Amino acid sequence: MIWSAAIYRRFAAALRPFVNEEITGKKKKAVINHRSPKKNMARIGVFVCWCGENIARTVDVEQVASAAAEMPGVACAMTCKYMCSEPGQAAIRHKIAEEHLTGVVVASCSPHMHLRTFRKAAEKEGLNPYLVEMANIREHCSWVHQDRTQATAKAIDLVAMAVAKTRNDQALAPITIPLTRRAMVIGGGVAGIQAALDIADAGYQVALVEREPSIGGKMAGLSETFPTLDCSQCILTPRMVEAGQHPNITLHTYSEVESVEGYVGNFRVKVRKKARYIDMEKCTGCGQCWNHCPAKKNPSAFDYGLGQRTAIYIPFPQAVPARPVIDAAACLKLTKGKCGICAKKCQAGAIRFDDEERMVTEEVGAIVVATGYKLYSIEKKTGTAYPLPTAAGTPLPLSGYGEYGYGRYADVIDSLQFERLLSASGPTGGEVRRPSDGQVPKNVVFISCVGSRDNAKGIAYCSKICCMYTAKHTMLYKHKVHDGQAHVFYMDIRSGGKNYDEFVRRAIEQDGAHYLRGRVSKIVEQSGRLIVRGVDTLAGEAVTIEADLVVLAAAMCPSDGAETLAQKLNVGYDENGFLSESHPKLRPVETNAAGVYVCGACQGPKDIPESVAQATACAGKTLVMFSRQQLTREPEIARVDETNCAACFACVRACPYTAIERAEIRDRKGNLVKRTARVNPGLCMGCGTCVAVCPSKSADLAGFSEQQIYAMVESLV
Amino acid sequence: MNEPQEFQPKIIAYVCNWCTYLGADLAGTNRLEYPANVRVIRLPCTGRIDFNLIVKAFEMGGDAVLVSGCHPGDCHYTAGNYHARRRWMLFRPLLEAFGIETERVHFTWISAAEGRKWQQVVAELTETTRKLGPYTGYREICEAKG
């Protein structure tokens, strides 16, 4: 075959797109026009899809196209078998170029299905993607109507509305927001440590804020963990040390979040560092101070009041940082001006009696919340169950079970206290001895669901882990007190999880725990023993057990201050105070505040493996964000016409995202010209609530503007 | 076959993008048939709906208006549907004062899973509007004025 010039040209033309895009690896990049077309000069292309038979069966698509061709501003209208297919998209691109279209309307399926597809196609041809709209003539028309005339009429109306909207479309450019690639983790329990380590290992700086003097959280105080009976401290403390020594992690212990400003990518968090009375740089953690401190009889919060500590103390031997803190309320020097032995003993000169609390500001791009839980207050009166020096006496909304005598009888304790009795580092050195007289209890009653699943006490939920740790308690007790007997009053045994049910069976079958299905009505003390009155509903009879020790598996509640923190972060929380995730299934660690993630028990009761998994998920989400140089956001957000704004700030009050600020416009000399509302593009999510409340009609929403919606309604005449 | 044609009311529906619009999509996917009288306008959130839009719908010859968003507590934007509800509480007596039948404005919550509810709501509203007849109040007011 002889190649004529004409054939060669045709061949070369056919090859060109491949030469440009695939062979050279360079993609021809369309220049996107960000100028909005003039309304009267609109040249809109209408593309009506058959969707095979899906639309064409009930809607006369050709009639829709010819009606659309007559609509104001429409330059061309055509139909296609499958608009979303490659040839369909190519037809759109071809028409955009050929007809110099200023807008595109695709009449096909739901915009949730293919709006993005068509916007991308238009973008490739240089048309601003926000000048593409869809008319939903499948889900909202052809699939739900039978009458062809009516369905066609409706389809024409829907297209007319879309055309009217497109005529009023504005070209929009994606918003770019600068990004600080540094994270903050609030809460230094196992979840917080995991999240911080994961982010830090990826090479980003993390500020880890912990309220207590040491990181470690609740897990540091546990004895052994179910279902493997790993020693809790043995698996946690190496992680704590790693977090403490990691070059990318800054620890703020004995610190709390004071305020949060800014938005995703650009948070400014003020951290209040409480007075520790120790120079952290000079202190070596040698222990001379706490070994010589004369104020020895202070209840230890780490031992939940079962043990005692000095006024200058480290919460537990493996604390990170291994630096002491002075309890100002217990220190003789700080209360009475006498003593000062610790300062004399300190070789490093690290004691600072004049220390004051101070504020540190951290600038971060993402925040992971891992504030954990506390146990439901089971005292009769409100107040914390045991003296906690850091969370001083805040009244708790929930309390009950006065009939169990918690707080009145020394030998009625909660499950976290029992953990300390079992722990080798606990106040009894790992021997199970009851708090009242130090005797080894021979008969122990465990009561599960104390608070949980009890609507009368205000908690409808199941605390999820109590069945498991109660089984663990009975096992560990039996391993330590061979002639002892454990009795468990339960409502149901919920042991879903890998090796979990087997674990509970082992507690019952091998370690002989006596499980009774029923509740306990009252506990009374009689000559040093606790008389537990309950019912065994399976046997159908009342039961009385003389116990030496009673352990209450109290419900898990969000820790103190979680709601206040949620308000500072603008994160939602449920009626129980647990922080709300964005979507329970598909966005389980994201919150409605962009850039804020939740993990661990602050989001809901959960065990250690789940908390750790969530923490890693939070780190993953943070790293996805940090993988970009800057953030881009959909430009369909609100805007305030500042010259027209009357500064009533109705929008500021209505905005669910606190995205609208009260701004001042000043002249060169600094005189106030006017006040106005101003939308922060980093925070606005584009709901448009401000538009509806604005009395002067100064607020508007790009993509769903007043002009567009009115034009849509008007097109229906 | 020259039966008198049944009155075909024009109903304008302002729905939120995240719940009701998807609910209506689901009705489509499940092929749940309903009267072809409703014209859906998609908005990000019911909180975006200014009541001028409802008046506008009547001005433009609409016979009824449907406002539907996410169920309380389900709002994609946390609280937009509560704003809509509060506004509705104020707007309703105003409608009565204007002499517009409140049945012509229907306020409801339809979630993304409630395709069947969408079908029912549209069918019921169409039936109610058919009984009420065409809405001419707005035109009458304009003519009386001009």
Task: Please characterize this protein's 3D structure.
The complex is a heterodimer of chains A (717) and B (146). Chain A has 717 residues and is α/β, with parallel strands linked by helices. Chain A has five domains: 1-28, no CATH class; 39-174, 3-Layer(aba) Sandwich (Rossmann fold); 175-210 and 225-273 and 361-372 and 562-633, FAD/NAD(P)-binding domain (3-Layer(bba) Sandwich), CATH 3.50.50.60; 401-558, FAD/NAD(P)-binding domain; 637-701, Alpha-Beta Plaits (2-Layer Sandwich), CATH 3.30.70. In chain A, the strands form twelve sheets. Chain A has a five-stranded parallel β-sheet. In chain A, strands 20-27-21-22-23 form a five-stranded parallel β-sheet. In chain A, strands 2-1-3-4 form a four-stranded parallel β-sheet, sandwiched between helices. In chain A, α7 packs across α8. The longest helix of chain A has 20 residues, at 148-167. In chain A, 48% of the residues are buried. Mean pLDDT of chain A is 90; it is low at 15-27 and 380-397. Chain B has one domain (11-140): Rossmann fold (3-Layer(aba) Sandwich), CATH 3.40.50. Chain B has a four-stranded parallel β-sheet with strand order 2-1-3-4, sandwiched between helices. In chain B, α1 crosses α4 (115-132). Classes of the chains: A alpha/beta (717), B alpha/beta (146). Chains A and B meet through α5, α6, α18 and α19 of A and α1, β2, α2 and α3 of B.
Tell me the strand percentage band of chain B. Answer: 15-25%
Strand and helix order of chain B: EHEHEHEHH
The order of strands across the largest sheet of chain A is 10-7-6-18-29
Which CATH class of the largest domain in chain A applies here? Alpha Beta
Oligomer: heterodimer
On the 0 to 100 scale, the average pLDDT of chain B is: 88
What is the SS-derived class of chain A? alpha/beta
Query: What's the tally of helices of chain A?
Result: 19
CATH topology of chain B: Rossmann fold
The end-to-end span of chain B amounts to 41 Å
What is the count of structural domains of chain B? 1
CATH architecture of the largest domain in chain A: 3-Layer(bba) Sandwich
Helix content of chain A: 25-40%
CATH topology tier name of the largest domain in chain A: FAD/NAD(P)-binding domain
